[in-house]
UniProtKB/TrEMBL annotation:
Alphabetical UniProt keywords: Membrane, Transmembrane, Transmembrane helix
TM region(s), chain numbering: 20-37
The protein, known as: Dilute domain-containing protein
Domain Dilute positions: 1-329
PROSITE patterns according to UniProt: DILUTE
Molecular function via GO: GTPase binding
Keyword Zinc in annotation: no
Amino acid sequence: MALTTGELNDKKSANGTGDIVLLSYWLSVIQFLHFYFTRADLYARYPNFLHEMINLTQSLITTLSFSINSRLNLLAEECILNFTSLVDVSSVLYAKDWNLFKTQKKHPNSYDDILNMLYPPSLNELMKPSPLKYVQVLGALYYVLDIHGVDLLLRAQTFSQVFYYINATIFNRLIANSRYCSRVKAIQIRLNISALEDWLRSHNFNAYKPDRIGGLETLLEQSNGLSGVNQSLLENKIERDDPHYLSFYYESLFHISKTQLLPTIELLQWLQVLTGLGDEEALINTVNEFESLNYYQLVKVSSKLYRYEVDEKKMPKALIQILKRLMAEQGEAQISRSKLHYMTQSTFLLKEVYIYLNPNHIFGVALPNASELIANYGAGIGGVKILRARKYQPTLPISIMDDIDMLLTQNRKR
């Protein structure tokens, strides 16, 4: 199995994407092996098997998510960042641009113009890059995981890793390019991300949550059987909003993905309200509402990146100085409490810390425990779901069973 996983990592196409159908198939194979091993008490006799299963599961989830992310990365700018459905976005005039030969486009105000807007989009319009094309890739991942019967807990962990990358990629491009840092552009990108939220609502699910989650060490005879396995998630307390804890993955898919997208959503909200802040109280109240943005990011956007429109009110310099003071006094303490993973961006003249998110961070994984496996693939509590237990009972083809019977008959005659 380890050799097969290595081959899957090597068998990639020229653009760096792997076969998501094959990867999801092997992920389902791993989960069923885990079910059969648990039922046969194999982990108690061979504890290293559980370590290997966790390592293989993390390898498959990581490879599968990176394969999807390599496809999404090609569509991010055209489908999310640059796609425009609002008339005002493409006609806005900015204060620092050369506007000598630019004029604002007129809104459609004639009867024919308004009537044309009510018609469904043409085939050529549908073929253009849009958020719909972006969510189709997510739909492909959802389909292959569903068709192979991958456990809902493993699906939640896979989508969590995918949406973490989506958030980090879009967030880093926003905060690295002033072209996207304006009020109307933030409104448009937020609308595009709402298409992802609509998809999540229509494909929402919850993993089955038993009375006691985790506790895979009970499958082993040794009390410290899982010590040193760094892929396992934390189980010592309930955390609904922290992907480092196992309880996070028993929330709905919408909650998991929305939590991973929160930094990007908050950055877009900051861009929309930045110039509307008039005093220190409004600034402090607004900043306190953010759960993911830190002072370093707020200062960079406010003082360096934001593009003011013509005649747009500027953010008072006194408020920017307040942000810089908060960054100097509380910045490090705020980062130490953060759940996010940052990377350092260095250039010849500048070194920026705590600004960009690390898109390559890999979260821990967890396998379903015995209670979940019995409820999902066994006869259930009390053994009443016999037909479902038979569905997941491993069987051999009749031809192979005939060959085995023939070999047994020959052995008895000797």
